[in-house]
Write a structure and sequence with these properties.
Blueprint lengths: L8 H18 L9 H7 L3 H6 L15 E7 L2 E8 L3 E6 L11 E9 L5 E4 L5 E2 L6 H16 L1
Antiparallel strand pairs: 1-2, 2-3, 3-4, 4-5, 5-6
Length: 151
């Protein structure tokens, strides 16, 4: 593994934002679930944006890091945390999640190879395709394991 340097920071932030948007679509904020029809009506195409004048465009604010939001899965509240240094954590989000450094239920981080390429890994260092639809099953399994352990 190669160490991360200052030149990598913009890429890490960009990749973290990409992952944030994917996760938010898959695991919406509590109370903000929208149907796909509503979601698509709120998204403007690139062509539409280019034909609007500057005063008609809304300024889109980028979230500040770490990005946190609560989501509900299997009747429990969880919190996603995405850092600008390339890590993603799913942890308890209810009352038990309010304590400092709540235990992670799911965690991935970016690692850099000797060739300078980045890839997502689990805590054991195993490469993971992320963001990728196949990861949903692993996340759901981790959530189910937690739900079963407290039932």
């Amino acid at each position: 593994m190669n160490s991360i340097d200052l030149n990598d920071l913009p890429f890490l932030k960009e990749e973290s934002l990409r992952v944030f948007h994917w996760l938010l679509a898959e695991y919406p904020k509590v109370g903000e679930q929208k149907s796909s029809k509503e979601e698509s009506s709120n998204v403007k195409s690139k062509e539409n944006l280019e034909t609007q004048s500057e005063d008609q465009l809304k300024i889109i604010e980028l979230p500040t890091f770490p990005i946190r939001w609560k989501t509900e899965q299997m009747g429990k509240v969880f919190e996603w945390v995405v850092s600008d240094m390339g890590s993603v954590t799913l942890r308890l989000g209810g009352l038990e999640g309010n304590r400092r450094n709540a235990s992670p239920i799911f965690y991935l981080s970016l690692r850099k190879t000797d060739e300078g390429k980045f890839f997502w890994t689990d805590p054991e260092g195993n490469p993971i395709l992320f963001p990728d639809p196949s990861i949903r099953k692993d996340i759901q399994n981790r959530i189910q394991l937690y739900v079963d352990s407290v039932s």
